[in-house]
Amino acid sequence: DGGEWEDYTVSTPITLNRGHYVSFRTKTTAGVDKDSFWQFFVSGKINAYNNINSMVSADFLNLSELAPYQFHHLFDDCTALYKAPLLPATTLAPYCYWYTFTWCYRLTKAPYLPATILAEHCYENMFYGASSLKEIRIAATTMADGALIGWLTSVSDTGDFYCDPNTEYRTGMSGIPRDWTRHDIADYPN
């Protein structure tokens, strides 16, 4: 209602008119596991803004470290999602973003991925089926086994991949799509 926080009951539909918005934040630090997780179901044209960490910690601006499975499945099948929220965490955990944007086929640009060290399976299947995705900017220089398994499966056939020029990425489903153009992250247009 323009700035006052109200308690939300999970599964209660929220209807927004064009130009209106809703914000979410947790009251306390929230824990997750692979079988218990938050997930948005949206319709219409949705743009997600600001810091996704508001879903985890009341003082989300200070959160830099994620727990295992922290945001897995969060936006799965959100075919109305046109813009993804900020993902500012720099210390990742196994599976923290697993299936986060799966089948979000209207996304054209991934949020900036600032973590330089990738944990096991942290981005596994992250953008699987996001068939319009054609731009990624990633700071990773060190990757654990399986960190990128299937993360860009079934994205756009062509696109732009901004990364550290000295970091080796495979080509294919566990790396950079074959016909994407690789760029130096320092050349990313701000």
Helix and strand layout, with pairings?
Elements (H helix, E strand, L loop, with lengths): L45 E2 L33 E3 L33 E2 L16 E3 L4 E2 L16 E4 L17 E4 L6
Task: Name the descriptors.
little secondary structure; about 190 residues; single chain; two-stranded parallel ribbon; 3-stranded parallel β-sheet; 7 strands
Structure explained in plain terms:
The chain is mostly loops. 0% of the residues lie in helices and 11% in strands. The strands form three sheets. Strands 4-6-7 form a three-stranded parallel β-sheet, with no helix packed on it. It is globular, with a radius of gyration of 16 Å.
Tell the overall outline: globular
The number of helical runs is 0
The structure class reads little secondary structure
β-strand number? 7
Tell me the fraction of residues in β-strands, as a range. 5-15%
Helix and strand sequence: EEEEEEE
User: What topology, given as strand order, has the largest sheet?
Assistant: 4-6-7
Quote the average pLDDT: 84
Distance between the termini: 33 Å
Largest sheet: 3 strands, parallel
- The helical percent reads under 10%
Kindly provide the radius of gyration, computed on alpha-carbon positions and rounded to a whole number of angstroms: 16 Å
State the assembly state of the protein chains: single chain
Low-confidence stretches: none
